[in-house]
Each structure stands twice: as structure tokens, then as C-alpha cells.
């Protein structure tokens, strides 16, 4: 099929490239000319395992193209995906200005029947707004061209996005038109080799809602476990054991119940807020969803509090090493990363920070921690520890999983570790002579 994907951010670029990999003819569009020029040469703006070789391969096989001109690429297009950003507005709702701008552009330029797909995460009712916007432009042009708006939310995890797209747990297609549903099924069927059961079709509004509910549910699991971890500490229980104890119940399951320093990233914080706002707009006070967010905000500061409990409020003269800045491993993304909040708090109390992350240091230096003083960045995990009074682990990168603890002791002034991701066995740490603080166990 001929596909146009509008927006070459994380979602658009991964989706477009994977569709091309399946043999479709894909053009990815973006208004950012510099980005498009770079992409044409196979240079990708984000770190995502496996994406760069796939982009290059598909450029070479002529299945993947990049352009800034949407008008030109609607001429011969079967399906147009809207994958532009929906940043959080001031009131917590998703800002639809970019989505609706693209809809307008489509309406101004489309010349043949088209399926328009909302791929961006958008609140319930957005497909109707996209439809109205396109129709208005067609009316202005006195044209009667058939088009349908379909909702097809993405469920990609950063760091594993290629895998999630190529071998999806499920694909949700929200469509109120049978022919469009059929076409979308045809597009996605190569991704389901054995069974099509996981290609789930429904009405547009339910599909829009599904995306928010999936993320809110996962965020709820995390906040629930973080709250449990805090209670465990108070009553003298070990959350790591409790986690295993409850996960063995198949109704609960082991996944997504790891306590830590709170969830971050581009999706959970934004989507939880947006769902709360949607409920509020309809006169409903979403108490549980509000609590999920509150617990997460507090959880981000739990490790900083442990540092203060150990060293006191005044951290002047203290050097603290940080292992991990990204909101999770396998990404350079620092959006809403707990590291931002923790480092700012420690610096405010006078601490000097020595930081290392395998991928996110550029993001930290140039954007998220740009204006924060007293941070020095190092190129290796051991160098970062040199002369520090303690180390805080904030992202569970594999390279932090089983470090040379002898080297850690040699480099640190004091063998003190605050673990925001519960990566090590506390008995082992004690035997090795570390003062080891973790989440959910005193
Ligand atoms: C998430 C969803 O998983 C994905 O389906 C959706 O499309 C986008 O949002 P992502 O933001 O890439 O993906 O990250 P994910 O791997 O889900 O982790 C989110 C956050 O939860 C991270 O900060 C992670 O550290 C935290 N987390 C996850 C926990 O604290 N505990 C867990 O048990 C699992």
C-alpha cells in the first residue's frame, strides 16, 4: 500500500519504518527540514535500538522516503497516518493544535479517497474533530471526496519499539466504516503470522479510550507498588519479597509491579493527566487516577529524602555520584525522568553532582538539566564515582546490574549506595561492606 506518515517523532518514525519493512511504500513527512534532510541520509534523531539500520535498509530498497511536502504525497496515498505530537496543555489536557493543523492540511490537499488514521495519543472525540476539520476544507474547495477517520493508537515501549511494532501484543483499530476496517486489517495482517485474534476492531471512541486506559492501568500498578513499598519500609517488610509473593497469583502477575523512583517518560505522566482532565470535563472526579499521579510525584523524591536522612538537610561539600539519567534503560529520553527532580533537589541543598548515563547525557546537558549548576558529567560509570560520598542509582541500565563492587569501593569516599531501582541483593551488599539503601526495605 502507499502510506503517508505525518510527523517523524518517535511514533511516526518507528511506525513508518516498520510499515516499509513489511513492503509498503512509505513516505514520512515532517515540517522540520533539517530533520528530514538528516533522515534522508539515514541519520536518525533519537536513540532506539534497531531503528537506524532498519531506516537505512528501507531507504536503500526504496520503500522508505522522507519529505517536507505533504501536498505532493497525498496524490497517490491509500492511508495517511497522523503521528504528530500532542503535548500537555497548561490545564493538563492534550494539546491538539498540531493534529488539527495536519487535518486542515489534508483537507486542503487531498485529491482522492483517503483513510486518515489518528496514530497520536488523542483524547476521546478527536477523530470527530479531525473529520470536521477535513470536511470543512473540502467544503471550501467544493469537493466531495470520500474519506474516513480511523483511530489506531500506538502501544510502543521506548527501547523496545521495533519489537513491539513488528510483533505486537495487539493492534487496536477503531473505525465506524467497514471498508476502512477491512483495509486496516489487510495492512496489519502480515504482523500477525499465526492468529488474527489480537487484531482488535472496535468503534472509534472505544479505541481512543483504550490507549489512555492501558497507560493509566499500568501507571496504577506502579503507583500501587510504590505505595506498598513505602508501607513495607514502615512495618519492617521487604517489598522485593512481597512482589514475588503477590506476582505468583496469575490474576496479579509479575509484570509492571517493580517499585522504584516513580514512572517517567513521554506517555504515562501525560496520559494519566489527560484522562483525569477528560473525566473532569465530563463532570466526573477521577479519584483513583488523581491518586496515581500524586503518589508518583511523591515517589520521585523518596530517594532524595533517604539521602537527606543519611547526610542531613545541608549537603554543602557533599559529592553525590549518579548512575543513570534517562527515565528508563535503552533510551536517551529524559522526559519526566525522576533524575531531573532528584538532582535539582540535591543541588538546591548544596550537593555537587557527578553524573553518568550511557545514552542520555547530551539530553541532560543541553535540555533537562541545562540550567542546573554543580553537575559534572563523566564518560564512564567508575570515573563518576571518584571522590564521591555516595552513589545513587536511578536507571536500571544493564551495565549497572553487576558492576565490579571492589572498584566501587575503591572510587567512592564512603561505600554508600542509594538504589532507586532495587538492583542489588541487600544481603550481598551488606556482606561486601556497603551501606545500602533501597526502595521498600528499611
Ligand atoms: C509506555 C507504555 O508501556 C507503552 O505501551 C505506551 O505506548 C507508551 O508508554 P514507555 O513510556 O516507553 O511505554 O515506558 P515503559 O517501559 O512502559 O515504562 C514507563 C515507566 O514506568 C518507566 O519510568 C519505568 O521505570 C516505570 N516502571 C515500569 C516502574 O517503575 N515499574 C515497573 O514495574 C515498570
From TrEMBL:
Residues annotated as domain UDP-glucose/GDP-mannose dehydrogenase C-terminal: 321-426
Pfam assignment, any one: UDPG_MGDP_dh
Keywords linked to the UniProt accession: NAD, Oxidoreductase
Keyword Cell membrane on entry: no
Broad EC category: oxidoreductase
Pathway: Nucleotide-sugar biosynthesis; UDP-alpha-D-glucuronate biosynthesis; UDP-alpha-D-glucuronate from UDP-alpha-D-glucose: step 1/1
One term of GO molecular function: oxidoreductase activity
InterPro entries attached to this UniProt entry: 6-PGluconate_DH-like_C_sf, NAD(P)-bd_dom_sf, UDP-Glc/GDP-Man, UDP-Glc/GDP-Man_DH_C, UDP-Glc/GDP-Man_DH_C_sf, UDP-Glc/GDP-Man_DH_dimer, UDP-Glc/GDP-Man_DH_N, UDPglc_DH_bac
UniProt EC number: 1.1.1.22
Catalyzed reaction equations: UDP-alpha-D-glucose + 2 NAD(+) + H2O = UDP-alpha-D-glucuronate + 2 NADH + 3 H(+)
NCBIfam families: NDP-sugDHase (TIGR03026)
PANTHER family linked to this entry: UDP-GLUCOSE 6-DEHYDROGENASE TUAD
Family, per entry: Belongs to the UDP-glucose/GDP-mannose dehydrogenase family.
Name the record gives this protein: UDP-glucose 6-dehydrogenase
Amino acid at each position: 500500500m502507499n502510506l503517508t506518515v505525518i510527523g517523524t517523532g518517535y511514533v511516526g518514525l518507528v511506525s513508518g519504518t516498520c510499515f516499509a519493512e513489511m513492503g509498503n511504500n512509505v513516505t514520512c513527512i515532517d515540517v522540520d527540514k533539517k530533520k528530514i534532510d538528516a533522515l534522508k541520509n539515514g541519520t536518525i534523531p533519537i536513540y532506539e535500538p534497531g531503528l537506524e539500520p532498519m531506516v537505512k535498509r528501507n531507504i536503500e530498497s526504496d520503500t522508505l522516503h522522507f519529505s517536507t511536502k505533504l501536498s505532493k504525497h497525498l496524490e497517490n496515498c491509500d492511508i495517511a497516518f497522523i503521528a504528530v505530537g500532542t503535548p500537555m496543555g497548561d490545564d493538563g489536557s492534550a494539546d491538539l493544535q498540531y493534529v488539527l493543523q495536519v487535518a486542515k492540511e489534508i483537507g486542503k490537499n487531498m485529491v482522492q479517497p483517503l483513510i486518515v488514521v489518528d496514530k497520536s495519543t488523542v483524547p476521546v472525540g478527536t477523530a470527530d474533530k479531525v473529520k470536521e476539520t477535513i470536511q470543512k476544507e473540502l467544503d471550501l474547495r467544493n469537493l466531495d471526496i470520500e474519506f474516513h477517520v480511523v483511530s489506531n493508537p500506538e502501544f510502543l515501549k521506548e527501547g523496545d519499539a521495533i519489537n513491539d511494532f513488528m510483533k505486537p501484543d495487539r493492534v487496536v483499530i477503531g473505525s465506524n466504516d467497514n471498508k476502512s476496517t477491512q483495509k486496516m486489517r489487510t495492512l496489519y495482517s502480515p504482523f500477525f503470522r499465526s492468529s488474527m485474534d489480537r487484531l482488535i476492531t472496535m468503534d472509534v471512541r472505544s479505541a481512543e479510550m483504550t490507549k489512555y486506559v492501558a497507560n493509566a492501568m499500568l501507571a496504577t500498578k506502579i503507583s500501587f507498588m510504590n505505595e506498598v513499598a513505602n508501607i513495607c519500609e514502615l512495618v519492617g517488610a521487604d517489598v522485593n519479597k512481597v512482589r514475588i509473593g503477590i506476582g505468583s497469583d496469575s490474576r496479579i502477575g509479575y509484570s509492571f509491579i517493580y517499585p522504584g523512583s516513580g514512572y517517567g517518560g513521554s506517555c504515562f505522566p501525560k496520559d494519566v493527566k489527560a484522562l483525569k482532565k477528560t473525566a473532569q470535563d465530563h463532570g466526573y472526579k477521577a479519584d483513583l487516577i488523581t491518586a496515581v499521579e500524586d503518589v508518583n510525584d511523591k515517589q520521585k523524591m523518596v530517594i532524595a529524602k533517604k539521602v537527606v536522612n543519611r547526610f542531613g538537610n545541608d549537603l554543602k561539600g557533599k559529592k553525590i555520584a549518579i548512575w543513570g539519567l534517562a527515565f528508563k534503560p535503552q533510551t536517551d529520553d529524559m522526559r519526566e525522568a525522576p533524575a531531573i527532580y532528584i538532582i535539582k533537589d540535591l543541588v538546591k541543598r548544596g550537593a555537587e553532582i557527578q553524573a553518568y548515563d550511557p545514552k542520555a547525557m547530551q539530553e541532560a546537558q543541553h535540555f533537562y538539566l541545562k540550567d542546573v549548576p554543580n553537575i559534572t558529567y563523566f564518560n564512564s560509570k567508575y570515573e563518576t564515582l571518584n571522590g564521591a560520598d555516595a552513589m545513587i542509582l536511578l536507571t536500571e541500565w544493564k551495565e549497572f546490574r553487576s558492576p565490579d563492587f571492589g572498584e566501587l569501593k575503591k572510587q567512592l569516599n564512603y561505600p554508600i549506595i542509594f538504589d532507586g531501582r532495587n538492583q542489588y541483593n541487600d544481603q550481598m551488599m551488606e556482606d561486601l561492606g556497603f551501606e545500602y539503601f533501597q526502595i521498600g526495605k528499611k
